Please model this.
Amino acid sequence: MGQSSTQAALRYLIPTGEKPIYIASEGGADAQLSINADFEDKVVDITDARQLHPSASLDKQGFELHRHLSSVDDFYAAARQPTPYEAELRELVLAITGGHELLVFDHTLRSDSAAIRRQHNIRETASVIHNDYTEASAEKRLRDLLPADEAEKCLQSRFAIINVWRSIAGTVVQTPLACCDAQTLAEEDIVASERRAKDRIGELELVSFNPDHCWYYFPAMTPEEVLLIKTFDSAGDRYARRSIHTAFNNPLAPPDAKPRESIESRMLVFY
Model:
């Protein structure tokens, strides 16, 4: 598995037949998940993805890592006025995916430190296994973001939603992201769940345990690296449809590990 591979407890949904309701936090020191569902911790192997040969890819495993130097020196400001960073993301992601057009529509800042969350009014790390979109909510997001005639045209061709995740304050040690190989995920593992936020209601996917799941992470990610995670692909019959993912407490982290600060940027990619 490699020296940086590890084992950790990940939080799986205990399905009951009821549709879970996830209420998104609004940020701050006390920000935390609120879901009317039960979960169970399962200790799983989490393999060092840097050891994969060939490397993980968006179309096969549903995630991939790239080196990316950004000109942005203050991502807290960039999330409020994101135009320069969005231009960088556009160039990066179109080249990687082969898409012909891209629309960045969201930036979310997170930290595992209450003090940092209080200072910047940002959200907590996402500590349950999930995927950001269902098929219905992905299509609804596209319709919400585009004029009706343009949306209908885009829905006739392949589109995907990609999440670009990066550290914004040093090397990530304490609460990295784990991603599941899309090839090891069964559709019956997925539970569509309502997602309620301040400005809208949508859906995300929670996940029940399956011992076939294969988990990976990229240890010691730096601000000069980005992790691309596919959260929806309308061509999911030919490519990975999604990679479920979660933050986890890294047993290899030293007690004085620096708090994680990160930004994730979501975008529609059109093919």
Summary: The CA atoms of residues 142 and 148 lie 10 Å apart. The two ends are 36 Å apart (CA to CA). The chain has a mean pLDDT of 95.
